[in-house]
Amino acid sequence: MGRVSAAKLDTFNFPIYYATPQQLKAIFSSNQSFTIERMEILRNPGKHTVLDVKSRAAAMRAVHGKLLTDHFGSEIVDELFEVYVEKLAATPIFENPDNDKTNVVLVVLKRKIDY
């Protein structure tokens, strides 16, 4: 849209990574402070539990707003999230909640006690 320089876009890194259940198990297993008591995948844990578009955008802004402001400046953040709301509204999940393919990995950990 021409609102920020190409250099700013090229140097931006959005630090999100979704580990697979196998990767999570390896991470938790290598931790010396906890044991895995229970781990399961909940597929579409509650039908129609996806946040509405504005709530989803507000949650993203709450979590990542500072990172975006620090990198791009506060002048474009409001516009950025307005465009984000429009993009979300056009996705299949929000057009039809039955398209939700959300998976939740439930992990119950038990702290190891060192004596």
TrEMBL record:
Q: Which organism is it from?
A: Castilleja foliolosa
Question: In which family does this protein belong, per the annotation?
Answer: Belongs to the methyltransferase superfamily. Type-7 methyltransferase family.
Which GO biological process entries does UniProt record here?
A: methylation
| UniProt-listed Pfam families | Methyltransf_7
Repeat among the record's keywords?
no
Q: Which UniProt keywords apply?
A: Magnesium, Metal-binding, Methyltransferase, Transferase
Q: Per its UniProt record, what InterPro entries does this chain match?
A: MeTrfase_7 (IPR005299), MeTrfase_capping (IPR042086), SAM-dependent_MTases_sf (IPR029063)
Its name, as the record gives it, is SAM dependent carboxyl methyltransferase
- SUPFAM superfamilies, per database record: S-adenosyl-L-methionine-dependent methyltransferases
GO MF terms listed in the record are:
metal ion binding; methyltransferase activity
Judging by the UniProt lineage, the source's domain of life is Eukaryota
